[in-house]
Amino acid sequence: MNPYIQVILEDLKMLGVTYDRFSHSSDHFDTLMKYCKELIEKGIAYCDNTEPEEMKAQREQRQESVNRNNSVEKNLKMWDDMIAGNENGTKCCVRLKIDMQANNGCMRDPTIYRCKPEEHVRTGNKYK
């Protein structure tokens, strides 16, 4: 068994957490991608290519990303780049439009989807 999975299962056992069904998040990647695109189409989420350090500083200073108010069309183009895993796409993430003025920093447009160019342990290179 994959060592990451083994550690999670051991942690659950230690905490006394039981489950009815064992699954992997990667079993649901297609569904997650479908809903992420839907959020972008509805203008609830946006693609952002801000550098991570700058994004962190913007959150701390409660500043909106320059990408926050991009058109749906531009966001969908960036999303397509993310799905393709190309150079532009791997620099992007998808963020929810919540509240950049929230007292809770975690609610300041959190990242909900990102690209990882490395091969996934279960899905290989199918997804980025």
Task: Summarize the entry for a quick read.
The chain has 128 residues and is of the alpha+beta class. The protein has helices at 3-15, 29-41, 52-60, 72-84, and strands at 45-48, 93-96, 111-114.
Please render the helix and strand layout as text:
Layout lengths: L2 H13 L13 H13 L3 E4 L3 H9 L11 H13 L8 E4 L14 E4 L14
Antiparallel strand pairs: 1-2, 2-3
Question: What is the ordering of alpha helices and beta strands?
Answer: HHEHHEE
Q: Spatial order of the strands in the main sheet? A: 1-2-3
Which structural class best describes the helix and strand composition? Answer: alpha+beta
State the major sheet.
3 strands, antiparallel
Helix count from the secondary structure assignment: 4
Q: Please indicate the percent range of residues in DSSP E strands (runs of 2 or more).
A: 5-15%
Overall pLDDT confidence: 94
Q: Stretches where pLDDT falls below 50 for ≥5 residues?
A: none
The amount of helix comes to 25-40%
In words, what does this structure look like?
The chain is of the alpha+beta class and 128 residues long. It has one domain (27-128): Glutamyl-tRNA Synthetase, domain 3, CATH 3.90.800. The protein contains 4 helices and 3 strands, in the order H-H-E-H-H-E-E. A 3-stranded antiparallel β-sheet has the order 1-2-3. The protein is globular and about 45 Å long. The mean pLDDT is 94. This is Glutamyl/glutaminyl-tRNA synthetase class Ib catalytic domain-containing protein. InterPro entries: Gln/Glu-tRNA_Ligase, Glu/Gln-tRNA-synth_Ib_cat-dom, Rossmann-like_a/b/a_fold. Residues 4-127 form the Glutamyl/glutaminyl-tRNA synthetase class Ib catalytic domain.
